[in-house]
Specification:
hpI Integrase, Chain A; 3-stranded antiparallel β-sheet; two-stranded antiparallel ribbon; 14 helices; 5 strands; 52% helix; 7% strand; disordered N terminus; DNA_brk_join_enz; DNA-binding
Length: 321
């Protein structure tokens, strides 16, 4: 059912009031947009939250139905988002409205898209905001993990996978055991990135070592169709057959970083940026880094390149009295 596929309305199982007031066809088209037009669950959730918040705002402003929504309403709401949130967030929410209203126009619910002419805030990013570990900190974190337990073997393998293969956490947690395989006498990993893109790459020798230790040490190598990274059973200390959620990975990263004495406030995305920066510092090319990260453009990869941070620090130290 479409109701199970989308975040309908701020955690509710009912349609937004403006959609419900616009008739059965509008309600069906609204549900179809989230069920059929958006495959990525994270995008679906973000777009659902944006649509719900905007339609709530419109209802509070006294608009009776979707047909009453005008460009000035969209522009006013986006201006409010720009004041309260970052420019990328406001731009994403405008994109959600544009796509939703496009779908409603195509479905003959509305005659025109009220978000089409609205301009979002200007934003140009030359460097990402993700905190990055230097090589010594990354090594310190990996070496600090006690691998005498299944949880330790899992956590070291997962962090190493994100560092050495530039894997997104979503792609890592979606892996099955069979996505670690041998080819040309070398271990490879198979990742499914955003948009369903399949990406395969050979393992760095350190990652190969950690993955072998994890697979053999926990026995999950005999369960090829099962999730690669799994939760730990409460009170047992053993791996379950439930895939590890991304929120659990974040909590694990925070716990491991604190235990290792890492002062940098890191997150799941830190390891992708850490790996790319280390690769480039050691003579790697931006083009190859983009291919390894499965980026369509090197402009995206440049957001993860934090080599200039070191240059900035060196220059700051020139200020002497």
């Amino acid at each position: 059912m479409a109701h199970d596929l989308i975040p309908l309305h701020a955690g509710s199982s009912t349609l937004p009031a403006l959609v419900a007031a616009s008739g059965e066809r509008a309600g069906l088209c609204f549900l179809e947009f989230f069920a059929a037009a958006i495959r990525n669950p994270h995008t679906r959730r973000a777009y659902g939250q944006a649509a719900g918040a905007f339609l709530d705002w419109c209802a509070a402003a006294g608009l009776p139905s979707l047909a009453a929504v005008q460009p000035m309403h969209v522009a006013a709401w986006i201006e409010l988002q720009t004041r309260e949130h970052s420019a990328p967030t406001a731009k994403q929410r405008l994109a959600a409205l544009r796509h939703l209203f496009d779908w409603l126009v195509t479905g003959q619910v509305l005659p025109a898209n009220p978000a089409a002419v609205v301009r979002g805030p200007r934003h140009s990013a030359l460097k990402g905001k993700t905190p990055v570990l230097d090589a010594a900190e990354a090594r310190q974190l990996l070496d600090s993990i006690d691998v005498a337990t299944p949880a330790g073997l899992r956590d070291r393998a997962l962090i190493a996978l994100m560092v050495y293969s530039f894997a997104l956490v979503g792609a890592a947690t979606a892996m099955r055991v069979e996505d670690v395989f041998t080819q040309n006498r070398r271990l490879w990993v198979r990742l499914r990135e955003k948009g369903g893109k399949r990406h395969e790459m050979p393992c760095h020798h350190t990652l190969e070592e950690y993955l072998h230790a994890y697979l053999d040490g926990t026995g999950i190598v005999t369960d090829p169709k099962g999730p690669l990274f799994r939760t730990i059973g409460r009170g047992t200390g053993r791996l379950t057959r439930t895939a590890l959620p991304q929120s659990n990975v974040y909590a694990m990263v925070q716990r491991r970083a604190a235990a290792a004495g890492i002062g940098t406030r890191i997150g799941n995305h830190t390891f992708r940026a850490t790996g790319i920066t280390a690769y480039l510092k050691n003579g790697g090319t931006l083009e190859n880094a983009a291919a390894m990260a499965n980026h369509a453009s090197t402009r995206t990869t440049q957001l993860y390149d934090r080599r200039r941070d070191d240059i900035s620090l060196e220059e700051v130290e020139r200020i002497k009295f």
